[in-house]
């Protein structure tokens, strides 16, 4: 899969002879090296989970948040370069705020994803800017119900039933496809996402990780918030048990 | 008596918006005055913003037209971006944005009414200062003073479309009877999930209220049944 774009990969404003922009592809590789981020749309809301790889034992648990609230009704989980992610989140917050102050209503999730995607795409158009090295999963609950979008470094944004980015995205996608999302509630979804993240975490390559999860559903009054501690603990326990059962085979 | 023909065109006006079970009915009179002179006795004060949202205009004719034009333009762009019809709430908030930010220069009271698939029929009143108030019924213009008590008593929840329209026509006609700055015809616009219907009620066909006189045939019409041709001698 690796191809050397010799000479055509120095600038984001250069196409290769076979029509690729290598800098954008390299940006995507930066995302692929980060911890996995998973998002699913259940029948009553959205659940997002992040495999936070812990760089140092001295870090306080619960710090270095990867999931951010963009507005009352929407949240974003970031994979890739953390500093780049902060910029995107800040932009999303600002777009959501400005939409509400002009139109007097909460920003529809589709509109927000289009605005964020077009901002990310903007940075692929000029030689004096580099593309964002992060992908984002945007989950929101508006008048049209719960919706899940994924925005890639190229500026593409699509709507999904289930999405994953980062190291374990292939494995995660396979697991998500096995789930019956349209029949699942968010409470069940939290357990499933935890199981998926624990399953695809590679003990050999990466040492420790912390699980961070958020949801937007009827139970959270359609507001984006961290999954409550007791449910999170229940999810972690269920995930560890599922792993042991697998290993026991 | 000074007609003051240089006065800015103002719509003395009675405007009304009423919700019913399934949509809204907007109503207005048709008098535009310049001082004491009736500049237009058949004006249309109910203006379209989008396919599903209309606005009733009162106060300065120019101010209300310009505000409507801007909001129609913004809503058109918004609809394209969103990929679906704009909601009544958003329309009302855009009017509010202009009315509030330019409050020192504008003199217009507006009633926004329409139907969207999320909230159904909604009425928003936006009076002089630029507040937005969502109401089951709203009235505005100089003639509205005479209708507050009337609506408090006469409006009921879950009226049918016919009941609501009759209520609106009755109300505008009552206001026309009492308010010198309102008159002419009664126009109504009904907006619901099926679309938009415009209706017209000529002034002389409206119900007469207490102490109003029956229209008299002019003696000139009766005495000279077939008069000389205008230009003939």
What does this 3D model show about the protein?
Chain A: One of its GO terms (cellular component) is cytoplasm. Chain A: This is Proteasome subunit alpha type. Chain A: It holds the Pfam family Proteasome_A_N. The complex is a heterodimer of chains A (249) and B (233). By secondary structure, chain A is of the alpha+beta class. Chain A contains 6 helices and 10 strands; from the N terminus they run H-E-E-E-E-H-H-E-E-E-E-H-H-E-E-H. In chain A, a hairpin with a 7-residue loop joins strand 9 and strand 10. The radius of gyration of chain A is 18 Å and the shape is globular. Chain A starts with 21 loop residues before the first helix and ends with a helix. The mean pLDDT of chain A is 92. The mean pLDDT of chain B is 91. In chain B, a hairpin with a 3-residue loop joins strand 8 and strand 9. In chain B, helix 1 crosses helix 2. The radius of gyration of chain B is 19 Å and the shape is globular. Chain B is built from 5 helices and 13 strands. Chain B is 28% helix and 30% strand. At the A-B interface, helix 3 of A face helix 1 and helix 2 of B.
């Amino acid at each position: 899969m690796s191809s050397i774009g010799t000479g055509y990969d120095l600038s984001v404003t250069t196409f290769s002879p076979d029509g690729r922009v290598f800098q954008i592809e390299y940006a995507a590789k930066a995302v692929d090296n980060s911890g996995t981020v998973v998002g699913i749309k259940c029948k009553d809301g959205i659940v997002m989970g992040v495999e936070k790889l812990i760089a140092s034992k001295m870090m306080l648990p619960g710090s270095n948040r990867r999931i951010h609230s963009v507005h009352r009704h929407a949240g974003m989980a970031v994979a890739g370069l953390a500093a780049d992610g902060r910029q995107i989140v800040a932009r999303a917050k600002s777009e959501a705020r400005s939409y509400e102050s002009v139109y007097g209503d909460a920003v529809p999730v589709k509109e927000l994803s289009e605005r964020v995607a077009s901002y990310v795409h903007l940075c692929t158009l000029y030689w004096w800017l580099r593309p964002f090295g992060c992908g984002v999963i945007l989950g929101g609950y508006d008048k049209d119900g719960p919706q899940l979008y994924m925005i890639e470094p190229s500026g593409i944004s699509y709507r999904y039933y289930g999405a994953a980015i980062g190291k374990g995205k292939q494995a995660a996608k396979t697991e998500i496809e096995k789930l019956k999302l349209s029949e699942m509630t968010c409470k069940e979804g939290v357990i499933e996402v935890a199981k998926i993240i624990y399953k695809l975490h590679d003990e050999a390559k990466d040492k420790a990780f912390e699980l961070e999860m958020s949801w937007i559903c009827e139970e959270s009054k359609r507001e984006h918030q961290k999954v409550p501690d007791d449910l999170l603990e229940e999810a972690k326990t269920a995930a560890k048990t599922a792993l042991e059962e697998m290993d026991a085979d | 008596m000074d007609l003051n023909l240089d006065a800015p065109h103002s719509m003395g006006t009675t405007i009304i918006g009423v919700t019913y079970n399934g949509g809204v009915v907007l109503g207005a009179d048709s008098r535009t005055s310049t001082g004491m002179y009736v500049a237009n006795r058949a004006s249309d004060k109910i203006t379209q913003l989008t396919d599903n949202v209309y606005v009733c205009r009162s106060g300065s004719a120019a101010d209300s037209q310009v505000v409507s034009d801007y909001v129609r333009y913004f809503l058109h762009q918004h609809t394209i971006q969103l990929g679906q019809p704009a909601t009544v709430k958003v329309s009302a908030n855009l009017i509010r944005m202009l009315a509030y930010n330019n409050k020192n220069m504008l003199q217009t009271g507006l009633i926004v009414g329409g139907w969207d698939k999320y909230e159904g029929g909604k009425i928003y009143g936006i009076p002089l200062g630029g507040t937005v108030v969502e109401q089951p019924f709203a009235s505005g213009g100089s003639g509205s003073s005479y209708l507050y008590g009337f609506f408090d008593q006469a409006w009921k929840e879950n009226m049918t479309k016919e009941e609501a329209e009759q209520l609106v026509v009755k109300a505008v006609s009552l206001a026309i009877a009492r308010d010198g700055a309102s008159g002419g015809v009664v126009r109504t616009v009904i907006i619901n999930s099926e679309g938009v219907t415009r209706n017209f009620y000529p002034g002389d066909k409206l119900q007469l209220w207490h102490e109003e006189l029956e229209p008299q045939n002019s003696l000139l019409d009766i005495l000279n049944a077939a008069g000389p041709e205008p230009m003939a001698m």
